Amino acid sequence: MSKNVFLFIAPVTLNRCPESGSTEARWFTNGRDHYFWSFDPSGSTPLSRRTCNILGLPKYRTSISSMVHNLFDYQYEAAKYLQEIQGFDPLTQDYARFCGLPLLEMFSPLEHFHLNDLTEEYQGALDAWSDAKETLSNMSDSESVYEGASSQLQNVFSNSVSDSQC
């Protein structure tokens, strides 16, 4: 019996729709799992699930997701300036399209519900979020004002939105 066990992971491809610019992630599999174990370094003979369980090999859950990273204000300003000096409008996806980057379709969480459907509690949370965001945008750009505030407000708002969709 071989001492080496090899993990093979199915490749992921990104297909861009030329009409909409949206990107589809597709995981190529052999009709089974997104990964398999093998004693063979070429992967020509996958191990059965039963054998993997007997050997105590780890099981993996696979997923594809986009990640959101918050940047400091000066980073957004630098990206905006870079696009402007190269002749692009930072409010469009023209620069991303020019660079060959995947285009994302943005939507607001408010599109999923109507304000009239909100309970009084959720309406209060939405009002507080709007008031706080407006207050922060009217204040100075010092880090002490903004530090952590945006993520806290987003958490309050996203909890209210997800609870109202149940």
Description:
A two-stranded antiparallel ribbon has the order 1-4. It has a two-stranded antiparallel sheet with strand order 2-3. The chain is built from six helices and four strands, in the order E-E-E-E-H-H-H-H-H-H. The protein folds into three domains: 6-55, no CATH class; 77-106, no CATH class; 107-166. The protein is α+β, with helices and mostly antiparallel strands and 166 residues long. 2% of the residues are buried. Residues 107-113 and 139-166 have low confidence and may be disordered. It is elongated, with a radius of gyration of 24 Å.
Number of DSSP helices? 6
Number of strands: 4
Query: Average pLDDT value?
Result: 69
Low-confidence stretches: 107-113, 139-166
Order of adjacent strands in the largest pleated sheet: 1-4
Shape type: elongated
List the domain count as a whole number.
3
- What's the SSE pattern? EEEEHHHHHH
Helix content: 25-40%
Strand pairing plus helix content: what structural class? alpha+beta
The radius of gyration is 24 Å
Q: How much of the sequence is in beta strands?
A: 5-15%
How far do the termini sit from each other? Answer: 53 Å
Largest sheet: number of strands, sense, barrel closure? 2 strands, antiparallel
